[in-house]
């Protein structure tokens, strides 16, 4: 094995054994290397095989999976190890950060205890040493008041803090290899930069290799040394990060880069079509049905690997593909505007939200003793017909709380006025009617879709609540509007992708015929292609129906593409509000400049 590699995959394939001897290939002849002290980024659309590759490395595949090839960790072939020895490797030599930290942490055990247990199990150190190590790790990943927070349970942490706790646990034993599966998907731009800067320092100090799975190509460009692109279980392009971004050679690589929002774009380039069904893979190039450079020979056989260029690529047209031009500087954004009159639709005056929690536990709460915590204070905002208002800020800044206050889901002081009338002055019946005109699309669409209801019934629910009986045809039209086939009417949520689930959530919101849709991190879990299609869809719907949006997001690039106006929150206060073009070109507040610099908005 190459001494410079901490991990090497040689012709690794994964297939699932189904009934009657059927074998479904999921990964096919993957060759990948992660060098000591370097980061290799694994990119591609959802379903391309990224997470499956990481699970193959740590051998956590389903029992009906057939794994072949060689997986080398240093000089150890992991596929030859018995499971007892493999369990020692996990956590000690290979650290793993999964995509969903809440599902990875034990909800009934304090976070500090979980980190201490992992450290003691693999090192044999004392509990005192484990406590000291846990406090040190919390400090390194940016969790304040480490001594107190180690005694909290996972549900007492925000999503970003849970992710940082998972990273701390993965780094506890200073592993040779860290596998990070979307570790920054729940973090804002500033925390993302902090976490990645931390990983960069640690991998250089300890010569730790990092296999980094992500949808965020701006992060890849800034921090990765190598890039490996997967499509439908096959490697299509790989090589140095600089070569990949300066001169991508595969049509799929170019398509991924074209789907990333940039300032000044009027339309994102979404990739047409979908990934092939694993049970019916094309004989030739798997990307050919979606490829603009398709030719007859692409359908006959899988292309040979071309190692002669700046990157290795599996494409017979690689020599004909000219790298995408990288825009210089930051052009002035050209946003479409609605044909509506621009009258004020929603007005927020001096909005504040206080959370109360018991100062001394349950007994104190029963006795009426509680502390008041100010979450939002003095928020003044205006939303006009046909506009998109973008809300940005760090985790814990109050963005989602602001959205819930607008939706009348939490008590607040101040005023939220819709079409000139404050909600607190409306009669109960009018408030109920007006609340229907402000709909919401949540961050995780699967959590907001009833798993026991069919898609058609989920979308029809607002229609049924409005007293409409025959609504199946309306549901068909709604699904068609959001780009979904009518055959999904009888499917359950578990049978659809994340992007499809988000479209269904939008269709359900549209069923109520709203004037405003609050979008709370609608693209955070989506790959760049699905995100591009969703953002284009939202723009089209706004243009067609005169919808107004409040877009809450960590993704400054997505905000810059969608929003007419951007509001910046910090610690529950409004730092700055301005037209998107002006605020991006010349932010007035130091915090806004810091936030934009951390977002890698102009990197790609």
Keywords:
604 residues, alpha/beta, Rossmann fold, 3 domains, eight-stranded mixed sheet, 22 strands, 34% helix, 24% strand, globular
Task: Tell me the strand order in the biggest sheet.
Answer: 6-7-8-3-9-10-12-11
Main sheet attributes: strand count, strand direction, barrel closure = 8 strands, mixed
Distance between the termini: 34 Å
- CATH class category label of the largest domain: Alpha Beta
Number of domains: 3
Percent helix, as a range, is: 25-40%
Mean pLDDT: 85
Report the total helices. 22
CATH architecture classification of the largest domain: 3-Layer(aba) Sandwich
As residue ranges, the low-confidence spans are: 323-340
Radius of gyration: 25 Å
Quick one: overall form?
globular
In CATH terms, what is the fold-level topology of the largest domain? Answer: Rossmann fold
Assembly annotation: single chain
Give the structural class.
alpha/beta
Approximately what portion of the residues adopt beta-strand conformation? Answer: 15-25%
